[in-house]
Amino acid sequence: MSNLPDHVGIDFGTHSVKAVELAKISSSRPELVNLGSQVTPKGVINSEDKADKKKLADALKKLFSSSGIKNQKIVLALPEFSVFTRFLEFPGVKKEELKDAVYFEAKQYIPMPLNEVQLSYVPIGFNEEKNAPKVLVVAAPRKIIDIYINIAMMAGLELIAIETESTAMGRAMYRSTGKKDLVILDFGANTTDMSILTEGYLVFSQSIAIGSDSLTQAVINKFNFNFQRAEEFKRNYGVTENILEGKIYEVLSPILESIMVEVRRGIEFYKSKTMSSAPKDFLLNGDGALLPGLSEYVSKSLLVNATLAQPWNNIVVNNKFKDIIAKSGASYSVSIGLALKDE
Ligand SMILES: Nc1ncnc2c1ncn2[C@@H]1O[C@H](COP(=O)(O)OP(=O)(O)OP(=O)(O)O)[C@@H](O)[C@H]1O
Ligand SMILES: [Mg+2]
User: Fold this and answer.
1) Digit-coded pLDDT (tens) for 141-162
2) Most buried in the list 44, 81, 274, 326, measured by CB within 10 Å?
3) What would you measure as the largest C-alpha separation in the chain, in angstroms?
4) Distance 167 CA to ligand 2 centre (A)
């Protein structure tokens, strides 16, 4: 049984705010009730300014009214770039001592005073060799949490839980694939978020400060196009080597490569911390993942098996939503994961 009632998952992106409402979330076949998205006003994400919060709350209201979502209970995600996560092991520490140990250790790793963050941790198994409980520590700045509590209130919605984008994403990917070992890349407008699932647990996440808008910007810089035209070129040609004599590929690939450098670094960090090899299955999410040729590019660059995620697998979808989902299925993964949260 679910501890949380059916609710709407809200993903605040810098490009768009996305909502998904599901029913029967604890069953093996949840049902899509409704979904929608709304362009995010410029510069409002994480802003403490009252007028900005009002703009975001208004966008949220508009999202609910335009897509006809009636359920007022929401679960939302804090943007990944605003939270800190860290995988830690505690050799010799007993279960009842873990909480104190986490708080003590966290001081060294969290780049903010502890009284300014909300600290939580998820036990993710046990390292037999080191006799050490393993945990993922998550720290979210209170300031940021307050912003979103405020926005939910201003929009007249009932906020029932908050989590991080990567946690929601991990849940959505696990439920759609049944796979417990995955690397997940979320190509957003401003950032590319990376997370690693092992044995079904989220053990690593990081936000890389380069997103799909940088690709558009590179096309603008190179060809002197306006934004609209550059965006069209990006979406139509993508990162395919043999199109337009490779001219677009040449512009886009160095930026993608700088993202890959950070992904590789993340993998190396993961390997050094866990002493195990990283998963070879990569799932690509976010609207930026729709870039033609991206899966092949990532597969080749990292020598892995990268595919576009299918977050709607195992969710019952009415025909009236089929068109939206066919066009932008992988952009709703975080919202789906939030809607699936059941405890
Ligand atoms: N068909 C497409 N092909 C390539 N890129 C696309 C396509 N559609 C949208 N994009 C790009 O995807 C980006 C937006 O992705 P998304 O909506 O997932 O971002 P977001 O979640 O709002 O942002 P962030 O996660 O960075 O806060 C934009 O840069 C946009 O240009
Ligand atoms: Mg996003």
Assistant:
1) 999 999 999 999 999 999 999 9
2) 44
3) 63
4) 13
Q: What is the 3-state secondary structure (H, E, C) of 107-151?
A: HHHCCCCHHHEEEEEEEEEEECCCCEEEEEEEEEEHHHHHHHHHH
Beta bridge partners of 76: 10, 162
- Residue 36, SS3 per DSSP: strand
Which distant-in-sequence residues (6+ apart) come within 8 Å of 61 by Cβ? 155, 156
Contacts of 90 by beta carbon, 8 Å cutoff, 6+ apart: 98, 101, 102, 105, 132, 133, 135
CATH number for the domain spanning 54: value is: 3.30.420.40
- In this structure, the answer to whether residues 92 and 180 fall within a common structural domain is no
CB 52 within 8 A of CB 33: no
State yes or no: pLDDT of 302 exceeds 90. Answer: yes
**CB-based contacts of 29, cutoff 8 Å, min separation 6:** 314, 315, 316
CB 279 within 8 A of CB 181: yes
Give the mutation target among 82, 184, 212 for probing the ligand 1 site: most ligand atoms within 8 A of CB: 212
Residue 243: Cβ within 10 Å count: 15
What is this structure's pTM? 0.95
| Residue 242, domain member (yes or no) | no
Asked if residue 157 and residue 264 are part of one domain, the reply reads yes
List the beta strands (DSSP E) in 165-243: 182-187, 192-198, 201-208
Give the domain range for residue 43: 8-83+140-215+250-339
Structural domains counted in the chain: 2
Q: Are residues 164 and 125 in the same domain?
A: no
Contacts of 279 (CB under 8 A, 6+ apart): 181, 182, 183, 196, 197, 198
Q: Looking at the CA of residue 231, tell me the nearest atom of ligand 1.
A: 31
Q: Is the pLDDT of residue 1 over 70?
A: no
Q: Is 71 in the pocket of ligand 1 (CB under 6 A)?
A: no
Q: Please indicate whether residue 213, judged by its CB atom, sits closer than 6 Å to ligand 1.
A: yes
Per-residue pLDDT of 70-94, as tens digits, reads 999 999 999 999 999 988 999 999 9
Nearest to 307 by CA among 288, 283, 330: 283
Q: Using CA atoms of 284, 285, 288, 292 in order, give the dihedral in degrees to the nearest 10.
A: 40
